[in-house]
Each structure stands twice: as C-alpha cells, then as structure tokens.
C-alpha cells in the first residue's frame, strides 16, 4: 500500500472499498502482524536496544510500542499530505519498488539507483528512491554505532515498516497500472468497486483473523525451522524479486475471472472465491516472511 504522486484513491478498510482514501501497505493490520511476529523473534540484546530507542522517542504519530510503531512510516508520510506536503513528497516513493512485470528491472524501478550523497542521513535522502535502497541505507545506519540516536530511531521506525512494504506483491510490481491501483475490481458476491492494490492491502489480511493477535497466531504457524532457514537466506533485492514474481504469477493472474464495466467505462475484474483461494496463501506467507526477516535484520544490527 502506498501513495503514488499521481494517485489519490485506495483503501484502508473493507468498508471503504468503494471510496477514495489514502492507501496503506498491508493496512495497519498487516504491518502490526509483521511487527508482532518480529518482536517475538528478537534476541534479548536486540529487544533491549530496540525498546530503549523507542522508549526515548517522543513522536506522537503512533503509540510508542513496537507493534504500533510498525505503522509509523505511513502516518509520518501522510501527516502533512493535506497541508504542506513536505513529509509526503519527501518519503512517499520510499514505500515501493514498481518493477514492471513485463521486462522491468530493479534499476528502472529504483530511479537508476543513485547513491546517497556523502554525509547525508538516510532520513534526509532524495525523494526519488525505492524501498529496496532505503532499507539498505537505514540498515547500515542502524548497525553503525556512530549514527546519532535521533537518526538511528528514525532508521528503526522506517525499517520496521519498509520490510513489510517490500513483501506486499503489489509494492514490488507494476503493470502500467500504478501498482494495481488502476485495476478496478469487484469482490464477489459484492458489486462494490475497488482496486486490486487495495484488495491485497486489506481484504486478504482481514481474512486471516478478526484481530491482530489472532491473525498473527495464524500466520505464525508457517514459521517452522525449515522455513526460517529458507527465508533467512537472500538479500533485500531478493525479497523484492520474490514479491514481484508472486505479483506476476498470482496477483495479476485473472484466469477464469469474470469482467465488468467499471464506473469510468473501463474493464474491471471480478475476484471470486477461487481467486481468493490462490491469493490468501501468498499474502499469509509474505507476512510470515516479513516477520522473520525483520527480526533477522534487527538481530543482526544489534548483535
């Protein structure tokens, strides 16, 4: 979930499916699930360091606990969206890496991958940067003992959110449709119209449980020793590649789906129970991977 500079409609909740609203990757619930799983897997040393950073942070955009702070980057981005747009314009592109599913490259999606200017904190870096490169910049800051506390706190909060973002398939892909935001959908049996990106952000996550703890417990069942070993290999770039592949194979796979004419005269997709059956395991695994990998990243930074 994200806000493109050319986009103003997406979803926060299932009931908002037909109305324009700011888009939040995975929705708050998804990020809170990732935060819940990651916090459970922190080493004592990492947990102590993380708790200390968050305890001294007086930012009031979210509650101060780890799970709530996993939603912070969205709140920060949107805090001046309807006023000065300073924070919005500076950070909104950091939430995604729109690799075109038909021959796109990471370099293209990451604005040519310019290096962070020497001496520039990652939190003050250029607006034209993708989530892959921002995660790496913030990871380096978090692991560096010389990073000032204020910047290290920002690095932690961005990392806690961006790991979740890069695991949302439609945050790592595009099909000339604004990351699925321009794909109109109806979720059968409802005829209310929404968009594909929003469906993956919220509706799939809400199928996992009626509360964050319940959903996190369901997702945690995937975190076996064998899966942890598999998921702990690879780089941030690899995570984006996995998400892009899932978008191509599953999110954009409308085989057998009916179509409809949307409110603007375009063709939309009807997402039925069969589509949900294909998509839900992908979303569930992505959240599990994000929880494991976020914990690994933090444990490594504070080893």
From TrEMBL:
An annotated Gene Ontology molecular function: nucleic acid binding
Pfam family, one: S1-P1_nuclease
Entry keywords, A to Z: Disulfide bond, Endonuclease, Glycoprotein, Hydrolase, Metal-binding, Nuclease, Signal
Signal peptide: 1-25
UniProt-listed GO biological process terms: DNA catabolic process
CDD domains assigned: S1-P1_nuclease
Transmembrane segments: none
SUPFAM superfamilies for the chain: Phospholipase C/P1 nuclease
Protein name (record): S1/P1 Nuclease
Lineage: Bacteria, Pseudomonadati, Pseudomonadota, Betaproteobacteria, Burkholderiales
């Amino acid at each position: 979930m994200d806000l493109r500079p050319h986009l103003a409609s997406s979803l926060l909740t299932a009931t908002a499916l037909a109305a324009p609203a700011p888009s939040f990757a995975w929705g708050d619930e998804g990020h809170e699930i990732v935060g819940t799983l990651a916090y459970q897997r922190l080493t004592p040393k990492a947990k102590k360091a993380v708790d200390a950073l968050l305890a001294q942070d007086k930012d009031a955009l979210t509650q101060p606990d780890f799970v709530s702070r996993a939603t912070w980057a969205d709140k920060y981005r949107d805090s001046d969206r309807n006023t000065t747009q300073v924070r919005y314009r500076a950070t909104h592109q950091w939430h995604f890496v729109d690799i075109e599913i038909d021959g796109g490259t990471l370099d293209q999606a990451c604005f040519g991958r310019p290096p962070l200017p020497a001496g520039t904190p990652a939190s003050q870096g250029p607006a034209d940067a993708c989530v892959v490169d921002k995660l790496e910049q913030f990871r380096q800051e978090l692991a560096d003992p010389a990073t000032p506390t204020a910047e290290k706190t920002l690095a932690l909060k961005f990392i806690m959110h961006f790991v979740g973002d890069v695991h949302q398939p439609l945050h790592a892909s595009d099909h000339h449709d604004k990351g699925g935001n321009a794909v109109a959908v109806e979720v059968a049996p409802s005829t209310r119209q929404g968009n594909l990106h929003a469906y993956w952000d919220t509706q799939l996550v809400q199928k996992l449980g009626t509360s964050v703890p319940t959903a996190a417990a369901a997702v945690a069942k995937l975190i076996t020793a064998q899966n942890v070993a598999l998921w702990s290999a690879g780089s941030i770039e690899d995570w984006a590649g996995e998400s892009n592949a899932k978008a191509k194979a599953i999110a954009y796979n409308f085989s057998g789906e009916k179509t409809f004419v949307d409110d603007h005269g375009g063709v939309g997709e009807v997402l039925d129970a069969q589509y949900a059956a294909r998509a839900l395991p992908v979303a569930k695994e992505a959240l599990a991977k994000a929880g494991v990998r976020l914990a690994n990243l933090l444990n490594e930074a504070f080893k």
